Every structure is written in structure tokens, then in C-alpha cells.
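User: I'm preparing a small set of examples for a lab meeting where we compare how different chains pack in three dimensions. I only have the primary sequence for this one, and I'd like the structure in C-alpha cell form so I can line it up with the others. Please keep the answer compact; I'll paste it straight into my notes.
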Amino acid sequence: MTLDPERARVAAAARLLAADGLVVGTAGNVSERAGDLVAITPTGAQLGDLTAEQVAVVDLCGEHVDGELAATSELELHLGVYERYGAGGVVHTHAPMATALSCVLDELPLVHYQLLTLGGPIRVAPYRTYGTPELAQVTLDALDGRLAALMANHGAIAWAGDVDGAVQNSLLLEWACTVYRHAAALGTPRVLDDEQVQAVIDAAIRRGYGTTKKAGDDG
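Assistant: Understood. Below is the C-alpha cell output for the 219-residue chain.
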């Protein structure tokens, strides 16, 4: 079977996203690239029960290479992210909070410094019909300089160097959307300004934020 490890990781990622409620039923898709080939979830499959054998393999032109099932209808979107941004893994979800905010916001503002991990405020791509070149185009534009975007009245997308990283970015985005929703219910959320953002960046560089270190290490 072509791309055995990648297919296994894609299937595991789909099951994890389903268990966490970011995808429901057949709604959503996951992929990972290996050279000139992409392992990607098939159209119409139950993501919560997905097996490696069900994962399709296509080339970068979208031609089917291996697997009994056809690739997701959002194949063009995934291939676009690989081509434009050099991604190693892509996740598209219909996560509840991200999808809800995509119906009302033009941008998810920088209400928490962890959004800087995704590149900053999260853009909302204009609505286009699912599975179309038009949807792929506006979503790719919204991803410029970002590792994630919302898709108006549709869902969310995230990418990274591999599928596991793309899953983590999807989870982070859904968490940030939830924080914003709770804050907005209480009042007008404060947004970090340029000075505060720079201070976060400086602190992250100085402290090695996001990396493990031994106790007593000030680096």
C-alpha cells in the first residue's frame, strides 16, 4: 500500500478530531504530503471510524494513485495549500465554535497571545460553495502569513509541517474561538496592541517559549 505511514497518521488524525468534536460524521478532511504524493481522507467516509486502508493517495495534480475510495471533494483546497505554502499537513474542520464565529466575524482578533503561534489575527475567507475552485482561492488568500483561517459560514482550516502539527493548530484555533466567544458574552473583548504583541515576541525569544528545558535553566 502506497504511503502506509502517512495513511495511518491521516486516519488517526481524523479519529482524534472526531473524538474531540471538531469533525462530525463525514464533514471535514485531513491530509499529509510525502514528496509528490498526498494521503488524504476520502469523500463520504465516517471520519470517526476511518482506517488507513480507506485513506486515498493522490499526486500533486490531483490524480488518483492508490486506494479504493476517491479523495475528498475539498482536494483542490488541500493541494493549493501544499503548492502555495509548502505545507506538510492540512486539516479542514467544521469545528462548532470556529464555524459559529465564521458566521458573524470578518476576523478573529488577537485576544490572546497564543494566536501569534498561528500568525496573528485569524482572517475569515468569504463564503463560496464547498468543493469549488472559488472556495480554494479565497481560503488560500486568507491563509497568507497564517497557519489557520476561518471559512465564512463553513468551518476552519489549519496547516503545518505535518498532519500532527495541523491537528494541533486546529485545536488551538478552536480553543481561541471559544475564548473569544466567552469573552464577547461578558463584554467587549480587549485586543492586544502592537506594543503588547512585541513584548510577547521578545519574551518568547528570551525564554524559549514552547520548548522544554531542564529545571534551573534560565535560558
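A couple of notes for your slides: The first strand starts at residue 29 and ends at 34. The mean pLDDT is 95.

User: Perfect, thanks.
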